[in-house]
Amino acid sequence: MKALRDPDSLLSEGLAAIRGQFKVPGTFPPEVDAAAKAAAQRAPGEHKDRTGEAFVTLDPATSTDLDQAFTIEAAGSDLLLHYAIADVAWFVGDGDPIDTEAWIRGETLYLPDGKSGLYPRVLSEGAASLLPDGPRPAVVFTTRVTPNGSVKLEGAERAIIQSRAKLAYETATEAQLPAGFAELSRRITTAEAARGAARVDPPEQEVEAADGHFNLVLRPQSLAEQRNAALSLATNLAVADALYAAKTGLFRVMAGPDDRAVARLRHIAEALGLDWAATLKLQQFEKTLDPQKPDAAAFMLAIRRAGNGASYVPYQEGVKPWHAAMAATYCHMTAPLRRLADRYVVRAALAVANAQPIPVEVTAAFARLGPVMGKADARANQIDRAVIDLAEAAMLSGREGESFAAVVTDVDEIGARMQLCDVPVVARVTAHSVTPGEKITVRLVSADPVKRQISFARIA
User: For 392-448, what is each residue's pLDDT tens digit?
Assistant: First the structure.
């Protein structure tokens, strides 16, 4: 889960309640575990030997479900990104018990105290994970990245790779990473700016104890994590273009924040003390934010939550799929261990890159995956929101009676939504005679971590 971490297990009781409320799966059915153990023994048979190439992985230090490994090659002024994706389809057959259970789950669910996997661990953290403890089957996508950051899929093939190192965001050094890593990221970022993309990578929120209270501390992404995201983005964009040209695929689409959401964000910026010039568009203002500063980091979280939500749509003749934050046609395919849809997009892209017909099972899946992934995403978002509600209530517990400065961000028939000025909390308050942008003072009436509820009353 990117939204919040709880390294010291301060919210364990509340998290257990969330798991129960949202029926977060625990163990897998016995037949699924048995099928996964058998699948883990399957020997690769359609894969080229690429174990001589210096692939590495780059993830959080504790991650063991490794979807991607990469190496980079210079080709004149261009860079060739060889991006190895876990070959989940080699282990999971259409309609087998593992596949059937994955369609029920949709995606891995992340909570601060652990995850509920899409696939059994013998696959997701073992035979299918691109760990450095032995050769692994993968689908290697080669993307050409030009000096101006444009991307094109050059090829894809099943291959056996051997990761040379499991690098961590927190500790990876330039010497450990493939040559061209920083430059490739720079090119992709430059191309994003030229397109007018509005991709936001907000910091994580982390719970910590201090002076008998809980605090929410914002932890910005490391430089290595930001650069690594560019590799995935480059491959997703190149594959999306190739699929669209082939008149097939499953695409990730999202509209940008509407006028009301942008107006709300301006009020949030005011509450956080950020100077957002009236002449600057949201996309321009985002580029000025420094995630190392708490006020800017909190605003980046607000931007992420202000979007209209992304969804999955299959290819439709005459309709250009568009992702506003990416300012491009875009797909998800680099995390098949964690998202059901990615497995099918990988299979389609492999076929297209090799001028082969799309498997009928993949085309049929594209028609069904939108609602399935939408339901899975909605559940994951509900869990994320519940965890944040829990953390906010825990943070404010014991401070009942205190007063807080706030700025009204939105008004409806129920009352007002407000952004507290001194803590990263958005809450509601009963206040009908206010307008968006108005500064108010509220008193904390109650903060109940068990119910994950906080209540304020307006006092000025």
Answer: 888 888 899 999 999 888 787 788 888 888 887 888 898 878 888 888 999 999 999
Same domain, 392 and 417: no
Q: Is residue 210's pLDDT more than 70?
A: no
Spell out the SS3 assignment of 328-375.
ECCCCCCCCCCEHHHHHHHHHHHHHHCCCCCCHHHHHHHHHHHHHHHH
Residue 184 corresponds to which amino acid? L
This model's pTM is above 0.85 = yes
pLDDT exceeds 50 at position 220: yes
* Other beta carbons less than 10 A from residue 179's beta carbon: 15
Q: Cα(316)–Cα(228) distance, rounded to whole angstroms? A: 31
- 15 with 56, same domain: the answer is yes
C-alpha torsion 367→368→373→376, nearest 10: 170
Residue 23 φ/ψ region, left for φ over 0, alpha for ψ in the -120 to 50 degree band, beta for the rest: left
- 293 located within any domain: no
Q: Are residues 90 and 228 in the same domain?
A: yes
Is residue 108 domain-resident?
Answer: yes
Residues 127 and 37 placed together within one structural domain of the fold: yes
Average pLDDT over residues 247-253: 97
Q: How confident is the model over 139-149, as a mean pLDDT?
A: 98
What DSSP designation does 307 have?
Answer: S
Specify the number of domains making up the chain. Answer: 2
Q: Is residue 290 included in any domain, yes or no? A: no
Alpha-carbon distances of 242 from 36, 156, 346, rounded to whole Å: 32, 11, 12
CATH number of the domain encompassing residue 421: 2.40.50.140
Q: What is the SS3 assignment for 403? A: strand
> Which residues is 75 bridged to in the sheet?
78
Q: What pLDDT shows up at residue 418?
A: 87
Rounded to an integer, what distance in angstroms lies between the CA atom of residue 291 and that of residue 85? 30
**Do 367 and 395 touch, CB atoms closer than 8 A?**
no
Q: Are residues 387 and 417 in the same domain?
A: no
Buried b (16+ CB within 10 A) or exposed e, 391-428: bbbbbbbeeeeeebebbbbbbeeebbbbbbbebbbbbe
Helix (H) or strand (E) holding 443: strand 439-448
Model confidence pLDDT, tens digit, residues 55-64: 999 999 989 9
Long-range contacts of 412-417 (CB under 8 A, 24+ apart): 416/440, 417/264
* Mean pLDDT confidence for 328-355: 98
Q: In this structure, are 451 and 366 located in the same domain?
A: no
163 with 44, same domain: the answer is yes
Supply the range of the domain harboring residue 242: 4-256+308-396
What is residue 2's predicted lDDT score, i.e. its pLDDT? 47
Spatial CA neighbour of 65 closest among 311, 250, 334: 334
Cβ–Cβ < 8 Å for 446, 394: no
